[in-house]
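Practice problem: predict the structure.
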Amino acid sequence: MFTSAVLWGLRHGTGKSLVGYTLGKIYGKNFTEVDDEILRQSHNEWAENRQFVMGDEVSTGDKRSASDRMKTMITRQQLRLNPKYIPSYTVNDCINYYFTSNHPDSFFLEDDDRRFFIHEVKQVPKPDSFYQAYERWMGVKHNVGPGIPALFYHLLNLDMGDFRGTTRAMMTQAKSEMLSNSRSDLANWVATLKEDPDTVLRSGGYPIRHKLWRSEDLLEVYDPDGKGRVTANGMARELARQGFHRAAGGMGVRTNMGQVKLWHVREIEEMMKLGPPALGTSYDNERKSGKAVKR
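Answer:
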């Protein structure tokens, strides 16, 4: 599949790893368990002949490079195996990944992520008697317990609707929260700007209803005292990353402040029909009436 499941929860002993071990019983010798250290190593003989891999307490945190590497692992169709002491070679990549974590920001996610299904485990651990009975059902002390064939049959015949191996992972509340935790303060501010400009574009308690903005203007609202390390260029990069459109296709626009580059923030479809002269006039007129506009 081109997706991977991540189960996270603050409490230990709630069965996150047990889910992986249960599915591992179905895959048998084609299952293995890895951790952060193993995934970072250049030698990857652990991946040979595997179809299901559980990463227990694996995390990308705020490291974009680690996140990119993991996304490649999930979707690649061929795998370059690099065992010790022998030449590397290429095989078809048939691995499906399942990850567990105890941290709400364990994975760095981008806004358009399609690979990770995130589920938060909120339940408290069950009594020891439950896990003892479950282990007998799973066959921990034997090769396979009585429940595994029944589970395998159930999964093989489960109606998956329109879900396919290449379908993007569904959005969940847990994923939305992890996305927020993955973002920087600036990225969260820009995300809110995109969803609801009135929430962040405010002055004196009233929304600033301007349609066109320079990155310098937005930076002044985001950091009015200039105490942060964000620059106007940094603001522009984040606006572009989150899909904001430059006015006039990025060309300079003549305004009373001189030649400037503007961003569409409100009424975008209508404003994108205007040429540079009209955009400049609109920018100037919006600022003649003051910053804040009452509803």
